[in-house]
Amino acid sequence: MGLQGEVPASFCLERVGVGGHRQRMTRWIVTLLVVPTMAMGATEPAPAKGKPAPAKTEPAPSKAVPAAPKADPAPAKADANAKAEPAPEKDESAVETKVPPVSAMIPAAVAAVPEPAIRDFQGGLTMAITAFNPETQAHVVLGLNYLHGGWEFEAARHFAAAAKLEPDCLMAHWGMALALFAPNPETSGQRDAAVDRMLALVDAGKGNELERVYAYAMIKYFKDGPGAAADAFRKLNERYPNDIQAAMFNALFSRGGYNELGAATPDQERSEKIIEDLIKRFPDSTLLIHTYLKIHAEAPDLQSALPLARKLCQLAPGYAPYFQMLGHYEWRTGNHAQAVSAFSHACSLYETWMKASQVSVMDCPGWVASECYRCVALASKGDYETALAAATALAARKVPVERSASSGGRLLLWEAKTLPARLLMARGGKGDISKALASLPAVQEIANYEKTSLARWYVDGLRLDLDGLRLIEEQKYEEATNVSEALSHHGEGMERVQRAASVIGERSLLFRNFRALEVLASELRGRLAMAGPKATQMAADTWFRSAADRQRRATDELPPAVLTPMAVRQADYQLLVNKPGEAVESYHEALKAFPNDLGALKGLAKAADKAGMKEDAATTRKKIEELTAQ
Question: Could you give all domains of the chain from N- to C-terminal order, each with its CATH number?
Answer without folding.
Answer: 22-43+52-59+100-254 (1.25.40), 279-357 (1.25.40.10)
